[in-house]
């Protein structure tokens, strides 16, 4: 797998109120991997994604997407925030939320038109939510809301997808539906980076993994580095989640 | 109606619309109280601006005062950022401090001018037509009408241009940032509009009514719709309605116009809160009662479906088997009979074909939560209306 580097992080340090939450992270994510970022609570997993996307400014270090700063590569990147980060009582429909994914390519002031609507409907269909397009978003279940978020990222038609805990609070059916879509994305040559909590499913879902706990512990193919040693280093206690073949 | 009356209503209406637009976004961003902070904290800006310009309607004064509004927002955010106090506390610290500076400045230096504390708090819409704008010696109308008209035009222009940006950054700041629509820029843009509008409306309606006009129409509209555009239109409508109705109420009672408009706003909210078709208190209570009965009905039907033995289906035993009080059991039994879902033979209850089908479908629906299968039942039963 000799391939391009999709995301390159150099010496990244991020702090909240002068307390570093990410310390001197170096990371190279190759194109076309489906990567999990794992680590305990407070390890800085979401922070890493947010600072790669320029949402949180780092105090040191740099990030490049295919060799250029994020600001120049926005159109290549789609982001799925944590479901809990938005107010689901906001007065809008499922279709409208998905349409928001098209705003980036439109730029300031220009409004979405038929073309954008069509793309949004297609994305809704892909995640099996077309029947709910006119639903007010608070009337959707947790799993359906997550699918809407996924559709919103799909509509961006990006090369790199960042997802912050897409499996949080979803049922097994939705989890499988989501992972199948992620695997399809990888098959299409996209790079997918997922903050993930369930260590049991890492080997089954992902082919690449990064262990993170304020510092980077390890990064690489799941088959090479997903082992008790790295888990113990990351989680601090003697972890025994051996890979189930 | 004489021309002064028309002018007052026109000013009140434009102020109401100009407030309803930023107000809608403040409500959705859970920042309603920031409008209170801005409306009070602009006072020192107004006073200083007045010393410089000697004209309450000068654009420079409006900009200076609006700047104080922005400073308020920044101060609140900085205090909150220290993590030592929460946002509401920070608001409570900042605006009285700034407001009191304004009060001191007025009482020391401006006793003899139109700027007094009463006018600041409640405004005096009735006097607005007296301050006229002359262009080349021609009377073109009250100054405050031109001021608020200009502000409203700019606000509407900005709203139409940046509607999508406002929507995405209000709903999901993280996505907005990642797409390149800086939430910080949009936030301060909105705050600037809110500040300028507050200053423009302030002279006419005072600090308290400005808050009411920003928050109450939006809060009322929020109860009635699940669409942002419709919420904006409804806010505007409620603002407009209160402005006109409030004026005539004041006229009839010979009372303060500002006070009357605020009263109407409060009453409107109360009415919608009580009687809104889907979210109103009465509708919710009614729906809950219906749902209770329907869930009982379903429980009852399911019981019949699951038990073929006669003793489980005897009218008199039902009560003890499913543990209901007499009234509830009777209501449910009657509802089931009325809908031809059961038949009673010699005091033994059995499901009809319709009842059996209904039970199966209803259980399916509850488990799968899918609409298509149950479309026909929606009209008969609240439970399935979502």
UniProtKB/TrEMBL annotation, chain A:
PROSITE patterns: ABC_TRANSPORTER_1, ABC_TRANSPORTER_2. Belongs to the ABC transporter superfamily. Residues 7-239 form the ABC transporter domain. SMART domains: AAA (SM00382). This is Metal ABC transporter ATP-binding protein. GO terms for molecular function: ATP binding; ATP hydrolysis activity. Keywords: ATP-binding, Nucleotide-binding, Transport. SUPFAM superfamilies: P-loop containing nucleoside triphosphate hydrolases. The keyword Hydrolase does not apply. The keyword Nucleus does not apply.
TrEMBL record, chain B:
It is found in: Cell membrane. It comes from the Bacteria. One of its GO terms (cellular component) is ATP-binding cassette (ABC) transporter complex. It is a multi-pass membrane protein. The chain crosses the membrane at residues 6-27, 34-52, 58-76, 88-106, 144-163, 175-198, 204-224, 231-250, 256-286. One of its GO terms (biological process) is response to zinc ion. Its main location: membrane. Pfam families: ABC-3 (PF00950). Keywords: Cell membrane, Membrane, Transmembrane, Transmembrane helix, Transport. CDD domains: TM_ABC_iron-siderophores_like. SUPFAM superfamilies: ABC transporter involved in vitamin B12 uptake, BtuC (SSF81345). InterPro entries: ABC_BtuC-like, ABC_TroCD. Belongs to the ABC-3 integral membrane protein family. This is Metal ABC transporter permease. The lineage of its organism: Bacteria, Pseudomonadati, Bacteroidota, Flavobacteriia, Flavobacteriales.
């Amino acid at each position: 797998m000799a391939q391009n580097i999709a995301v390159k992080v150099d010496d990244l340090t991020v702090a909240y109120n002068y307390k570093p939450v990410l310390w001197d992270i170096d990371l190279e994510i190759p194109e076309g991997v489906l990567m999990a970022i794992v680590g305990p609570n407070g390890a800085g997993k979401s922070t890493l994604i947010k600072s790669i996307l320029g949402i949180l400014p780092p105090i040191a270090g740099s990030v490049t997407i295919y060799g250029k700063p994020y600001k120049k590569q926005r159109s290549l990147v789609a982001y799925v925030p944590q479901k809990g980060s938005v107010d689901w009582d906001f007065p809008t429909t499922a279709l409208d939320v998905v349409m928001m994914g098209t705003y980036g390519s439109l730029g300031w002031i220009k409004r979405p038109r038929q073309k954008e609507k069509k793309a949004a409907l297609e994305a809704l269909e892909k995640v099996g939510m077309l029947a709910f397009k006119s639903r007010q978003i608070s009337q959707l279940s947790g799993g359906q809301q997550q699918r809407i978020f996924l559709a919103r990222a799909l509509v961006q038609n990006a090369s790199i997808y960042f997802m912050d805990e897409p499996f949080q609070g979803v049922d097994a059916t939705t989890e499988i539906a989501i992972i199948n879509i992620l695997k399809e994305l990888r098959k299409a040559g996209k790079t997918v980076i997922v903050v993930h909590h369930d260590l049991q499913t890492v080997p089954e879902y992902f082919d690449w993994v990064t262990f993170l706990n304020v510092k980077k512990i390890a990064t690489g193919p799941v088959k090479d580095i997903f082992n008790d040693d790295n888990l113990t280093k990351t989680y601090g206690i003697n972890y025994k989640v051996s890979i189930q073949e | 109606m004489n021309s002064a009356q028309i002018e007052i209503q026109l000013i009140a209406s434009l102020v109401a619309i100009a407030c309803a637009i930023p107000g809608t976004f403040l409500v959705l961003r859970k920042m309603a109280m920031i409008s209170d902070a801005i409306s009070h904290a602009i006072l020192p800006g107004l006073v200083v601006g007045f010393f410089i310009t000697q004209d309450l309607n000068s654009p420079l004064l409006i900009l200076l005062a609006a700047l104080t509004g922005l400073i308020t927002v920044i101060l609140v955010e900085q205090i909150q950022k220290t993590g030592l106090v929460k946002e509401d506390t920070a608001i409570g610290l900042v605006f009285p401090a700034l407001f009191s500076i304004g009060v001191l400045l007025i009482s020391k230096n401006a006793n003899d001018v139109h700027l007094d504390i009463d006018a600041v708090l409640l405004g005096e819409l009735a006097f607005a037509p007296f301050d006229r704008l002359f262009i080349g010696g021609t009377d073109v109308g009250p100054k405050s009408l031109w001021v608020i008209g200009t502000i409203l035009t700019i606000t509407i222009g900005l709203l139409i241009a940046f509607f999508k940006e406002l929507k995405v950054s209000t709903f999901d700041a993280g996505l907005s940032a990642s797409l390149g629509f800086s939430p910080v820029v949009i936030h301060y843009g909105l705050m600037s509009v809110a500040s300028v509008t507050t200053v423009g409306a302030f002279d006419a309606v005072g600090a308290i009514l400005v808050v009411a006009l920003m928050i109450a129409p939006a809060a009322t509209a929020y109860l009635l719709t699940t669409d942002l555009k419709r919420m904006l239109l409804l806010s505007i409508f409620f603002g407009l309605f209160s402005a006109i109705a409030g004026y005539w109420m004041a006229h009839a009672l010979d009372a303060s116009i500002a006070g009357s408009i605020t009263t109407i706003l409060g009453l409107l909210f109360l009415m919608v809160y009580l009687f809104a078709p889907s979210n109103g208190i009465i509708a919710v209570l009614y729906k809950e009662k219906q749902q209770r009965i329907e869930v009982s009905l379903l429980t009852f039907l399911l019981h019949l479906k699951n038990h073929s033995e006669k003793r489980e289906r005897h009218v008199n035993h039902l009560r003890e088997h499913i543990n209901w009080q007499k009234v509830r059991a009777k209501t449910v039994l009657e509802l089931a009979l009325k809908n031809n879902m059961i038949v009673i033979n010699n005091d033994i209850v059995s499901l009809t074909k319709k009842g059996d089908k209904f039970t199966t479908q209803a259980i399916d629906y509850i488990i799968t939560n899918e609409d298509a299968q149950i479309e026909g039942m929606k009209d008969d039963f609240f439970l399935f209306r979502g």
